[in-house]
Specification:
The protein has 102 residues and is α+β, with helices and mostly antiparallel strands. The chain contains five helices and four strands. A hairpin with a 4-residue loop joins strand 3 and strand 4. The protein starts with a strand and ends with a helix. The relative contact order is 0.08.
Length: 102
């Protein structure tokens, strides 16, 4: 067909003119591109929207919050909390707390 294209990352057919709606810079396209790199099948636009809504739900945020009580900071991942605990600022506060406890 002369006026049709296919996005191989998203597995969606495009008609000339609808390419503006499906740009290679869209979050959905980039997500499917990354999934393809690790061998996962692409998500449809509806599945992608559902995944975003699920990630942004309040219960998702509560399940994945980590907290440093010494510095009174919240972190979204365990890795970010671990990095924080090795930071110079955190270690300095820890030293001050040890000194004041003695």
């Amino acid at each position: 067909m002369a006026g049709s294209y296919t996005c191989l990352s998203c597995q969606v057919g495009l008609v000339k003119g609808s390419c503006n709606e499906h740009t290679t810079k869209s979050d959905w396209h980039l997500y499917n591109l990354k999934r393809g790199l690790v061998g996962l099948p692409p998500l449809s636009k509806e599945e992608y929207r559902d995944k975003l809504l699920q990630q942004n739900s309040p219960s998702h945020d509560l399940d994945k919050q980590f907290y440093c009580s010494l510095c009174r900071k919240k972190f979204s991942t365990l890795n970010s909390l671990s990095s924080h605990e090795q930071s110079k600022k955190h270690l300095q506060l820890l030293e001050k707390k040890k000194i004041s406890a003695e």
